[in-house]
Design goal:
By secondary structure, this protein is mostly helical. It is built from four helices and no strands. Keywords: Membrane, Transmembrane, Transmembrane helix.
Length: 158
């Protein structure tokens, strides 16, 4: 029997989506509200913070949708396809968009006059993580594209 990781990858994607919904849909908005109550200087960035949170959540869910498409192609034994190249490129752009939104949040917080080294460090850390994820998705996209081209030219099963 041939093992195919499609099912486990999709389960992991669903779990990641549920965690993301819990964080972005409940926990982070709750923490933004708490921070604005505790630190009045942050109250002017409540709605921009909520919009950034919603944008990050939406882009994460869109990236997971692209991941789902990749898993489907893997299940069809078509891992090295142009569809996966496109999906990985989209994931890369979404990761850059998330990094940009996090950098915007960082700028808003610092611009409000609120200085918390922990929050600044967290936002910087996650901004770098998403930039690196974008770079990895782009590199993987190039590898998949080259493998797809090689498979097409040589008519090889990869």
């Amino acid at each position: 029997m041939k093992r195919n990781p499609e099912r486990m990858l999709k389960i992991a994607g669903v779990i990641a989506g549920l965690i993301g919904l819990a964080l972005g849909g409940w926990y982070i908005p709750m923490r933004i509200g708490w921070a604005c109550e505790r630190y009045p200087e942050l109250s002017k960035i409540y709605w921009p913070g909520m919009i950034c949170d919603g944008g990050v959540l939406l882009m994460c869910l869109l990236a997971l949708w692209q991941f789902w498409k990749i898993c489907t192609e893997i299940g069809r034994d078509n891992s090295f396809s142009q569809q996966n190249v496109r999906a990985l490129n989209i994931i890369g752009w979404l990761m850059l968009g998330i990094a940009a939104l996090l950098a915007l949040c960082l700028a808003m917080i610092v611009g409000s006059g609120f200085i918390s080294l922990f929050i600044i460090a967290c936002l910087l850390f996650w901004t770098v993580v998403f930039v690196l994820a974008a770079m990895l998705a782009t590199a993987l996209s190039n590898l998949v594209r080259r493998a797809a081209e090689t498979r097409g030219e040589e008519n090889l099963p990869l």
